[in-house]
Write a structure and sequence with these properties.
alpha+beta, Dna Ligase, domain 1, Lipocalin, nine-stranded antiparallel beta sheet, four-stranded antiparallel beta sheet
Length: 268
């Protein structure tokens, strides 16, 4: 029987800002999880391993029941806080409990109109809701540094087919070089036709990048735009986030996006 103690392992994590942190102890990972800095779908790699997995796949990193503070030692003095307790959020002082809360998320949002385009938008909203994180997939290790050649534009990096899955349902985004886009969920296909054009654009001057998908009703001359945020993880994974309550309202950070409204897609 192995005497290995998983509590002595160190781990690296990819936070919501897309940056990698660590190695840190299991206790620190649990602390970040409780603070909301990361969630159960955040990417984690055990030190010494080559593969990344979702945090929910590590039993030793799941938060346990609350632990009561030990009584102060005789004499009335309290033990000094540990460096990890003082460090808190990735080496910074621990923020107040409402630091990661966005009151606007609880506010009611106005609905979308625009006739026939609404049906398409609703379909996309359903599609985004079922695109739960596929972070359990293994990050590509070959030539996947996340650094891009200065001659390669953001459009060049986004063009192509990106795919994810949820409980056996395959969902695909196809960004074409001519600026059009197609979306597929199982056997349901959303693509440009004589009545509706689907266009996409990316603005890499923003961080995270601004990704827009616009549905144009060529008959009525009306248009609806889904305003999303995007970040490339390496060269073969694309992190997307949106506000499903009002897709025309772009989130400012992945921290402001609800878990069901963000996903990671794999390049095909």
């Amino acid at each position: 029987m192995s005497d290995h103690n998983p509590n002595l392992d160190n781990y690296k994590v990819v936070a919501e800002d897309g940056n990698e942190y660590g190695p840190v102890s299991a206790e620190q990972v649990q602390a970040w999880l409780k603070q909301g800095v990361i969630d159960r779908h955040s990417m984690v790699k055990k030190e010494g391993d080559d593969q990344w997995h979702a945090l929910l796949n590590f039993a030793e990193l799941q938060p346990g029941p609350p632990v009561l503070d030990a009584p102060p030692p005789a004499g009335g003095s309290e033990p000094a806080p540990s460096p990890e307790t003082q460090a808190g959020h990735f080496g910074k002082p621990i923020p107040p409990p409402d630091y990661f809360q966005d009151p606007a998320l609880a506010a009611p949002r106005k609905g979308l109109g625009k006739g026939a385009i609404v049906g398409i938008v609703v379909g996309v909203l359903i599609l985004m809701c079922i695109l739960t994180a596929v972070i359990g997939a293994v990050l590509d290790q070959s030539d996947d540094t996340g650094e891009s050649d200065g001659s390669i534009t953001a459009e060049d990096q986004i063009v192509g087919e990106w795919k994810g899955s949820n409980e056996g349902t395959i969902v695909t985004f196809i960004f074409n070089a001519d600026g059009t886009a197609n979306m597929i969920e199982g056997n349901n296909v959303l693509e440009s036709n004589a009545e509706v054009k689907i266009k996409w654009s990316i603005d890499d001057s923003q961080d995270p990048m601004h990704l827009d998908i616009t549905f144009v009703d060529t008959v009525k001359g009306e248009a609806v735009t889904l305003r999303m945020i995007a970040r490339l993880i390496g060269k073969n994974k694309l992190h997307l986030g949106m506000m499903s309550d009002d897709p025309s309202d772009r989130p400012t950070s992945f921290l402001n996006v609800k878990p069901d409204d963000k996903t990671i897609l794999d390049r095909q």
